[in-house]
Amino acid sequence: MDSRSKDDLKELLTACHRSSGLLAKTLFPERFYRPFSEKIHGAIFKVIDDDSIMKAVIAAPRGVGKSSIVNLLLPARGILFRENRYIIPISCSADAAIEQSENLKLELETNEVVLKLFGSCKSRNWSQEKWDTKWADDPTFSTRVRPRGAGQQVRGRLFRNYRPDLVIIDDLEDPEHMDSPEQRRKKKEWFFADVMNSIDRGNKNWRIIVLGTYLHEDSLLANLLEDPTWTALRLEICDDDFHSNWNEYITDEELKELYESLRIQHLTDVFFREYRNLPISTVDAIFKEEYFRYYDEVVEGLDKRKYVEHAILVEPAKSAQIHSSDSAIIVVAVDTHSNAIYVREVLAGKFHPDEIYDKALTAASKYKAAVIGVEVTGLNEFITYPFKNEMIRRGQYFEFVELKARRGAARGEGKDERIASLESFYRKGQIFHNKNCCMGLEAQLLSFPRSRRKDIMDCLAYIVELLEMGDRYFKSSFVDDLDAEEEEFKALMKDTEKALEWNRVV
Questions:
Q1: CA distance 420 to 103
Q2: Cβ count within 10 A of residue 78
Q3: What is the DSSP letter of 433?
Q4: Whose CA is closest to 40, among 340, 248, 221, 319?
Q5: Which ranges of 243-326 does DSSP label H, i.e. alpha helix?
Q6: For the CA atoms of 222, 164, 88, 56, what is the dihedral angle to 10 degrees?
Q7: CA 121, CA 115: separation in Å to the nearest integer?
Q8: How far apart are the first and last CA of the chain?
Q9: Cβ neighbours for 117, distance < 8 A, ≥ 6 positions apart
Q10: CB 250 within 8 A of CB 268
Q11: What is the 8-class DSSP label of residue 475?
């Protein structure tokens, strides 16, 4: 820095002011030492760098440094560039908020780069409860920082003539109180009555940034994410196929290991909430984690079993712009002799029509499927003919079945009932998952009926209609093996023959 000219430094500071990512690496390289993820950190920076966004809620996965970004980087920018007059950091407890505030103070006091570029801002009022900045080159400009815990007074605060203009809320909700409807209600009421009325609505220079991790489907964070008046950002550490969104922090293999460890402990709901910010229904859940059963591809040998039939289920997006919405393709193996449905492969994403045809037909060939069942509700002209045409072009001939939703499906009715029909199969332990590809399916099932996305589980639900159309019914558990049953009956009669002689006529 000593070798840089004043113009160079001015140019650097101008760039830092525009980019929180550059500011982090320039001022706080020891705190932000890993490369940033464009999908996670880039998305957060895009929101906090846009001063026109006054109300933002960000659901970020555990471990990505969200607290450092909002409790260090964001207020430091407001203080050092003299943009904010009154900053209120809020956390679930006063101790947690003070701890983050003290970390910020320490950086402003001791960080050599900060002192070199901006000088000291320490004033006489430098306590834990509240502290003010003071600049040698402009004694009239000062910023107050007052950390607060959930439920503490924030309404009616004034610093000189200024009301709070930057309110930062990080992990406001305590996991221990999430199960209490009364606690959740009180926290929401305090937030909307006190926090939201602490700012001066007559001015347009205030911002409220809420960050957290999904803890409950009825949490404040969950409600704000659904509120159209807030700029909402929901971030995940990976996708349904365990592809990491931040390899420098956790790899695909490490994610699979983490998920498997939690699955063994029946805690996959923790993974979905804390690492993917997906709502898991706790009050009216229909599908429970203990219903999920798994199979081993090698052990089961489904491709060689006599009574197994394969089907490809396809649910295209419900839009003419298919590639802009979510589609799902599922490979299902059905064994009516042993009363089992195996979910062997799940493909889900935003696919163009030609990608849907290609993936479905490739899967049909790979698993030697007997039938391809495709939902055609409202999309016959986009699906049926092009699909059949592609089969003929490839010289691949499979039985093509149009799956039509029940009446009202075009209006979004009946989908939940169709999905709910799977519950009895899961509860009886008749559906088995390939544990390497069913995370997205399980997330949607556990979230049902409050799931954000329903494409994968709705696609699987069509297996019931397909089985009915093909007259495929599970065998009675009492006649699985007629020869074995006959031998067992003969042995029983031999042991009890004398006792039954007298009433044999009866």
A1: 50
A2: 20
A3: E
A4: 248
A5: 252-264, 268-276, 297-300
A6: 30
A7: 9
A8: 106
A9: 1, 9, 13, 27, 80
A10: no
A11: P
Q: What residues are paired with 167 via a beta bridge?
A: 88, 208
Taking a C-beta distance cutoff of 8 angstroms, is the pair 251, 37 a contact? no
Average confidence score pLDDT of the chain: 88
- Sign for the CA dihedral angle at 251, 255, 256, 261 comes to positive
- Alpha-helical segments (H) within 19-85: 20-27, 43-48, 66-68, 74-80
Region of poorest pLDDT, from 143-152, 383-392, 444-453: 444-453
**Cα Rg of the chain, angstroms:** 30
Query: Rounded to whole angstroms, how far apart are CA atoms 42 and 40?
Result: 6
Position with higher pLDDT, 21 vs 174: 21
Whether this prediction's pTM lies above 0.85 is answered by no
**Where would I find the H helices in 91-244?**
94-110, 112-118, 181-190, 220-225
Span of 158-172, 214-228, 472-486 with lowest mean pLDDT: 472-486
Q: Residue 486 has what DSSP assignment?
A: H
Q: For residue 103, what are its two tokens? A: 């970390």
Domains of the chain, start order:
6-234 (3.40.50.300), 284-472 (3.30.420.240)
Amino acid identity of 499? A
Nearest residue to 48 (alpha-carbon basis) of 1, 83, 13: 83
The whole-angstrom separation of Cα 329 and Cα 344 is 11
**Angle (deg, nearest 10), helices 20-27 and 6-18:** 130
Angstrom distance (rounded) from CA 351 to CA 293? 29
**Strand-pair category, 144-145 with 231-234:** unpaired
Task: List the beta bridge partners of residue 159.
Answer: 162
